UniProtKB/TrEMBL annotation:
Protein name from the UniProt record: HAD-superfamily hydrolase, subfamily IA
GO molecular function list: phosphoglycolate phosphatase activity
Biological processes annotated in GO: DNA repair
NCBIfam families: HAD-SF-IA-v1 (TIGR01549), HAD-SF-IA-v3 (TIGR01509)
């Protein structure tokens, strides 16, 4: 089986405003100034506690956890009250349609919690499109390869039949560590040059180009580095 394994935040969904708002609330709950929005965007994709630790490395680990818990509460409340939009990127649904029509199974590997991922997919009516959902609250987060390995096992896909799609260097490195090809998307939260340096096999600048890039990497002539 062919498996297209997507990141969520920054790849399927433009969640940067929701993430920045929740991180601001998390730091405020600890009576700390919020990190800059650009710094928060840089850690999107990491497991939550690890993201907080990256933003504030001098804090005690217990405070990282406290901020992360306040973040989760704020994110959940903001979503319930529809305070901050989390739109799909243009063309996402059409790209998923095209990949499924070409015989691909779809999956997600994300730094979100499972609860957060399900809420996002349900909001956009996408939960039923994905056969495997991997989250960093249940497995080691990016760039560890375990989410890719578990996704392949659940989907019944081999390495040469699997492609990761993401917007951050964490996605690129996760795919490299799992020894599967990876497509970087330009509309997310890390720069194209960074994605290329981190190992992207292809870069796409819009969703219309995504299916062809993914399918090309599933061909027998895929990246020689994976042999």
């Amino acid at each position: 089986m062919k498996l297209a394994l997507f990141d969520c935040d920054g790849t399927l969904v433009d969640s940067q405003y929701a993430i920045v708002a929740a991180m601001t609330a998390g730091f405020a709950a600890a009576n700390l100034p919020p990190p800059p929005a650009e710094a928060v965007r840089r850690v999107v994709g990491l497991p939550l506690v690890g993201a907080v630790a990256t933003l504030a490395p001098l804090l005690e680990p217990a405070l990282h956890v406290e901020i992360a818990e306040a973040y989760k509460a704020a994110f959940h409340e903001n979503r319930l009250l529809a305070r901050v939009p989390e739109p799909l990127f243009p063309g996402v649904v059409e790209a998923l349609d095209a990949l499924e029509a070409a015989g691909c199974l779809l999956g997600v590997a994300t730094g979100k919690s499972r609860r957060g991922l399900l809420a996002t997919l349900d909001h956009h009516g996408l939960r039923g499109r994905f056969v495997t959902l991997q989250t960093s609250d249940l497995l080691p987060g990016k760039p560890h390869p375990d989410m890719v390995h578990h996704a392949m096992a659940e989907a019944g896909a081999e390495r040469e039949e699997t492609v990761v799609i993401g917007d951050t260097t964490f996605d690129m490195l996760m795919a490299r560590n799992a020894r599967v090809p990876v497509v970087g998307v330009s509309w997310g939260y890390h720069e194209v040059e960074e994605l290329t340096a981190a190992g992207a096999d292809r870069i796409v600048t819009d969703c219309a180009a995504l299916p062809a890039a993914v399918l090309a990497l599933m061909a027998p002539s895929g990246p020689a580095a994976l042999n």
